[in-house]
Amino acid sequence: MELSAIKWFFSPAIIGHRGASATAPENTLAAFFKAKQLGLHWVEFDVMVASTGEAVVIHDDDLERTTNGRGRVIDCSYTDLKKLDAGSWFDPLFSNERIPSLQEVLQLLWRERLAANLEIKALAGHEQATVKQVLDILEENEGRLPSPLLISSFSPLVLQLLRKASSSALLGIVIDAWQEDWHALCSEIRCISVHINHEVLTPARVREIKAKEYLLLAYTVNTLDRAEELLSWGVDALFSDCPDVLVAGLKRK
């Protein structure tokens, strides 16, 4: 797919970070549905595997922050993970929310016509198994999504494994601190996008990335002033926990 075809979807130029995570529990079906209700066309979510190999949508390695479980995701079976409450920590109204499987999220994307950025959060030693599981599920769902998924990771190894397994996957590298060798990494893996902590961006760095014709996505932006500044510099889209605030504010301008 050409970059121009992908860029067309960034309208509004806001991506729901783990869904609409300021108004619903992150990385749940409720959060993704809420993002759609707020007028978004893009959401972002995180994937790792259970001890039994299934791909599940959750951000943290440990269960404590966003569920009523204890321990590491990788040490729990899919059956046990599905029993956990992934919503009450946010609000009792969401007590029926569960940790969704990747398959369940893909079904919601298809139903709600949402594009998405899937970030792989593989634990060390589980990169190969996680990549294989994600690609197998995406292959099973080929042709059923409104657009191809943009797959990203902080891990160069994960991205290398993805590229080795798929010449056509749309890949993005996630960067927290500025890396002078960012372009060498992107070029080696044939990424199409750079996903970067907005706090390390400057106008010069934005120009550097855009001059190489990469999509530039900045995280996590929750204030209107900063959103306007980054977009004025040429950033293509912003990950936000508060997409309703940014979308409403940008519309008024």
Strand order of the largest sheet: 1-2-4-5-6-7-8-9
Q: What portion of residues belong to β-strands?
A: 15-25%
Structural class: alpha/beta
Secondary-structure element sequence?
HEHEEHHEHEHEHEHEHEH
Distance from N terminus to C terminus (CA atoms, Å) equals 32 Å
CATH class type: Alpha Beta
Fourth CATH level, the homologous superfamily: Phosphatidylinositol (PI) phosphodiesterase
Strand tally: 9
Number of helices: 10
Helix content: 25-40%
The CATH topology: TIM Barrel
Rg from alpha-carbon coordinates = 17 Å
Q: If you average the pLDDT, what whole number results?
A: 94
Described by the principal axes of the CA atoms, the overall outline is globular
Low-confidence stretches: 1-5
Query: How many domains, in number, for the residues?
Result: 1
Largest sheet: 8 strands, parallel, barrel
CATH architecture: Alpha-Beta Barrel
Structure description:
The chain has a single domain (3-61, 101-252), classed as Phosphatidylinositol (PI) phosphodiesterase (TIM Barrel, Alpha-Beta Barrel), CATH 3.20.20.190. It contains ten helices and nine strands. It has helices at 3-7, 29-37, 78-81, 102-112, 127-140, 156-165, 182-189, 203-211, 224-233, 243-252; strands spanning 14-17, 42-49, 55-57, 115-120, 150-153, 170-175, 193-197, 215-219, 237-240. The two termini are 32 Å apart.
